[in-house]
Specification:
The chain is of the alpha+beta class. The chain is 48% helix and 19% strand. The chain is elongated and about 125 Å long.
């Protein structure tokens, strides 16, 4: 059970090739009591599930260090927020500890996420520049290039010596970023990119050295291997830059929180670090500033731009008593906010934690790709060896056989296959978070594309969960406006839910604010008051009978409204019924659009409610639902979902995450809607922060676009290898097509870059 396990998150502090993902996970799972392990090569994070109290982060770190995989316990989300902007407290003995000690918490030199990508980019750039510069004299001194270009250098033994020196620097120094990681790969029993590149470069180099030393009579490979090294370095430099962009998507969430806040204390305002704020502190948020932390407004009125947290495009009005979320932007007025949450309890910290959780999780298609990438390296070496022996065996010569072998080994590197899915997962889950949709498990995003039926809970999901006026029916001398005005004047004195709904409707219509005098409540029947010159009565049919007015004369209209599940209120003077006001749980206007969009996507839309069939039928008809389930008790909701699943339907259940918890768990995809700042809804797979059913349609759209990108990347990565490996092995030699090693290098790199760029294009998608 989930409650009997711990989740341990580690940050790997060096670059691990994507094709080694399975090896990292397998190593972690050799530690006793580890149940599951999931490695994300884009963000270099390892998430491990272990029996509670039976394994620690230190156990896993120790195991990984045996294979020279440096890692440390991952920094909690709220500390990451503070690290990004709050390097305010520096540990005096080491600059690396800047900003990593606060509120009594001490961390042992945790690396900032994704720094290794930047370090790798810098390393590849440095080695590439040296290799690129020195490859020029290698090309100039190469006899093959001289013959091709039609020039020759004066005969001298010094040219061979210089060629050897320049080529040695290019190959040995330029290829060092690959060579130095080979021991770790071998300890992991992984024949990854580093091993393949090392075999390709050093085999060609050593073969050429034997020719220079006179041990073999043939043409050297210096210029081919030098250009191969330069292309490999350039390609991986570009790949690291693309990876930084993909991994940096999560950092945009971290940067939402401002580094400082205006603390109000003893009537004085002082600027302090946001990390220093405590629950109960009072902060001033001026126009144009970001709210520094979660809290409640104690003074002032304004509107906040919450788009970056909830996805809500319209500014949200705030006044005393309103909750505010850290990272949102204050628009026009000043607010005084009392801090209610700090650290890991804040909305941004919870959001970051859930995005990390989703990124670390893996859909089945990713696990399949990881295994395929792991085995493809073995295929590359096997095909490379077969290529050499075939061409050498038919008399093509050692140089030709070696050239094709090197080309096969380089082009077959499964880098792109290892990156194909993780980069999409990183981008899509971060996009979802920026739109107010929190994906707790990447598999849920994959399944969302396949759902057949979306079931909405009614109250508070499709409806507002509050009584409101739906109909005003005129019978007497008063206009509909007068009926509502006079009724609101009387009901403003009542605390009843129906009375509040009528008053709110009058305020929304900006009607005249009439005053009622001599208000008298009539228990069980209604109330009366003097409004202007009229004695107004508001209540049920029994009140009308007490006034000697016959309500049965209006029974047809009352029955019609009641059949729609509405509550009907009579409004009269002492002698005449003036009209009716019908009340109901108001249907959200957003619900109509949501249902329309979902049906346009080919999905069935249903409603689940504990209300009576009349009310459910009315709401279903208004929204044009496919079907509805009424009078369903909370403990029966899960059975309703299961009954659809038994018919072969894949079901998404949308509810509030409380009463609907069993149904959310039973469904194929559980979606909690309207979580607000309380984003930690345990029973749901996906959490929608806003109380807006249209986000469900957005979720389905995002799921389909995400899966499309995953499939595109998989098709490209696998198709590339299926086509490129036979061509590299010389299948087109009979028609005069030979793929040089340097072309293989740039092609392999372009394959890796292409899947990353394709994933980044997902950011442009409209959802």
């Amino acid at each position: 059970m989930e409650t009997d396990s711990d989740i341990i998150e580690l940050q790997v502090k060096d670059y691990i090739s994507p094709e080694c993902t399975c090896k990292v996970e397998d190593m972690a799972k050799t530690v006793p009591h580890i149940l599951e392990a999931s490695y994300d090569p884009v963000n270099s994070t390892l998430k491990v599930k272990a029996h509670r109290g039976m394994a620690s982060a230190e156990d896993i770190i120790k195991k990984l260090k045996e294979c020279k995989v440096p890692c440390e316990q991952r920094i909690p989300a709220h500390e990451m927020v503070q690290m990004e902007h709050g390097k305010e407290k520096k540990k005096p003995m080491a600059h690396e500890m800047a900003g990593m000690e606060h509120e009594g918490m001490k961390m042992e030199k945790p690396a900032a996420a994704h720094d290794h990508h930047a370090m790798m980019a810098s390393e590849f750039r440095r080695h590439f520049l040296v290799a690129a510069v020195l490859t020029i004299p290698v090309l100039t001194l190469s006899p093959a290039i001289q013959n091709w270009a039609g020039y020759s250098l004066p005969p001298s033994p010094i040219w061979d010596a210089l060629l050897l020196i320049f080529a040695s620097i290019v190959i040995l120094y330029g290829g060092f970023p690959f060579y130095k990681r080979v021991p770790r790969s071998l300890r992991m029993r992984a024949l990854d990119m580093n091993v393949l590149v090392t075999i390709a470069l050093l085999s060609g180099y050593l073969y050429s050295v034997t020719i220079t030393l006179g041990l073999l009579e043939a043409t050297d490979f210096y210029w081919e291997i030098s250009t191969l090294a330069a292309f490999l370095l350039f390609g991986h430099w570009m790949e690291m830059r693309a990876s930084i962009t993909a991994a940096g998507a999560l950092k945009q969430l971290v940067k939402l929180i401002p580094p400082t806040a205006n603390l109000v204390k003893d009537g004085q305002i002082s600027e302090v670090q946001t990390a220093q704020l405590k629950v109960g502190d009072l902060v001033l948020v001026r126009p144009g500033q970001k709210v520094p932390i979660d809290g409640v407004v104690t003074e002032g009125e304004s509107s906040l731009n919450e788009a970056m947290i909830t996805g809500e495009s319209k500014p949200v009005s705030k006044k005393a008593g309103s909750n505010v979320i850290g990272g949102t932007v204050n628009m026009e007025g000043s607010l005084r906010v009392k801090v209610t949450k700090t650290g890991e309890e804040t909305a941004v910290a919870q959001i970051i934690k859930m995005v990390e959780q989703a990124i670390a999780s893996k859909p089945p298609v990713q696990r399949l790709a990881d295994r395929a990438a792991n085995y493809l390296t073995l295929i590359a070496i096997f095909v490379g060896a077969t290529t050499f022996f075939f061409w050498f065996g038919i008399g093509a010569g050692i140089p030709f056989a070696i050239a094709l072998t090197i080309t096969v080994i380089v082009i077959a590197c499964p880098h792109a296959l290892g990156l194909a899915i993780p980069v999409v997962t990183t981008i899509s889950t971060t996009m979802a978070a920026n739109s107010g949709m929190l994906v707790k498990n990447a598999e849920a995003l994959e399944i969302a594309k396949l759902i057949d039926v979306v079931i909405f809970d009614k109250t508070g999901t499709l409806t507002k969960g509050e009584f409101g006026v739906t109909d005003v029916v005129k019978f007497g001398d008063w206009s509909e406006k007068q009926i509502l005005e006079n009724t609101a004047a009387l009901e403003v004195n009542s605390e009843h839910v129906i009375a509040k709904g009528i008053v709110k409707k009058a305020q929304e219509e900006r009607l005249e604010n009439k005053k009622a005098e001599k208000f008298t409540a009539i228990p069980g029947k209604g109330a009366k008051a003097l409004v202007g010159k009229d004695e107004v009565y508001v209540g049920n049919a029994n009140l009308m009978r007490d006034l000697k007015i016959n309500p049965e004369a209006f029974e047809a209209e009352v029955s019609r409204l009641s059949a729609q599940g509405k509550t009907v209120v009579y409004i009269s003077t002492a002698s005449q019924i003036q009209g009716l006001i019908a009340m109901a749980d108001l249907i959200r206007e957003e619900s109509r659009e949501a249902v329309k969009k979902l049906k346009a996507e080919g999905l069935e839309v249903a409603m689940l409610t504990g209300d009576n069939k009349q009310t459910a039928a009315y709401v279903s008809k208004e929204l044009e639902l496919n079907t509805f389930f009424a009078e369903v008790l909370p403990d029966q909701k899960a059975n309703t979902v299961k009954s659809l699943q038994d018919k072969g339907k894949r079901v998404a259940m949308v509810g509030d995450g409380i009463n609907d918890a069993p149904a959310l768990v039973q469904s194929n995809v559980g979606i909690a809607i309207g979580a607000g700042t309380d984003v930690a809804v345990e029973s749901a797979d996906i959490i929608l922060i806003r109380n807006d059913p249209r986000d469900v349609a957005k979720l389905v759209t995002l799921s389909r676009k995400t899966m499309r990108k995953m499939n595109e990347n998989l098709v490209w990565a696998t198709g590339y290898n299926v086509i490129a490996i036979p061509v590299a092995a010389g299948i087109l030699v009979p028609v005069g097509v030979v793929l040089p090693p340097e072309v293989a290098a740039i092609t392999m790199t372009l394959s890796s870059i292409s899947v990353t760029v394709n994933a980044l294009l997902l950011r442009r998608a409209k959802i």
